[in-house]
Amino acid sequence: FMVLSFRMRILIPVIVAVAIAFLATGIILYSIFNKEIDTSVKANAWNMSYRNSNIIVSNFEKLIRTSSTMAVSAAAMSGKDISREEMLQYIDTVLANNPEIFCAWIVWEQNAFDGKDASYAGNTALGATETGRFAPLVTRSSGKSLVSPGEGLESADWYQQPLNTGKPYMTDPAEYDFGGTKAIAVTIAVPFRINGKIAGVAGVDVNVNYLADMFSKIKVFVNGYAFLLSKNLDVVAHPNPASVGRPSAVAGELRPYAAENKEYFVERASSATGITSYTFYSPVHVDEVDYTY
Asked: Mind giving me the DSSP string for the chain?
């Protein structure tokens, strides 16, 4: 066995104590460094979210203004010496001037446009239903405009909700069939009145691809990305198109905070790679339609 000298007996506890002190200092510095990174990431995420939320809201406000202008025009042109063909031209012009819109439409209550519904019964080419009700939807498809009448109007929330409340309305993303062309879209609808009585609803449909393009331009650090969730926390816009229309992977964690319109930071480690990812949830409220993304 070894016999330690008196000097070594004194030095060993000192060396151990110094090593422990260095280790403790390293752990503290690592913890502080990690906290600073965490704080920095959250601050940058908040600033980025705040900056881009204003852009998102302004885009939706533009769509609401377009729908509102159509509603005003629908009321002003009803009961006048204006043909249905001329009305279709107006809607088509709105569609042509707003490339972000997939479909523009105006639906009148029975006989509210010109009182001649019976004469147009079944004339789908002019946007009339089987009863002749004027309900034209003008859809852009392959650079051409297609006209078809609105269907299922008595149960469609995009029509019944604004008709019954008298307020602008925005739907959750849903799949629609626009004259044979299927697309997942968000609808913005605005009611209009004739002689003080609600007589119909005007609106636009925006393909979620437009929203996806908008979000693809938002750069999040080196390899991050932005995505949009509906108020029900279903995916509206995402770099992976297969995610659209499905509940978000972090919906369960976000739901309590989304219900109260609170921001929340989710930290998750991948079970496959062990790499930690951060998801910052920031509610974006569109006032005019009382909808929160």
From this structure: -----HHHHHHHHHHHHHHHHHHHHHHHHHHHHHHHHHHHHHHHHHHHHHHHHHHHHHHHHHHHHHHHHHHHHHHHHTTSS--HHHHHHHHHHHHHH-TT-SEEEEEEPTT-SSS-GGGGTT-GGGTB-TT--B-EEEEEETTEEEEEE---TTT-HHHHHHHHH-S-EEPPPEEEEETTEEEEEEEEEEEEEETTEEEEEEEEEEEHHHHHHHHHT--BTTTB---EE-TT-BEEE-SSGGGTTSB-TTHHHHHHHHTTT--EEEEEE-TTT--EEEEEE---EEGGGTEE-
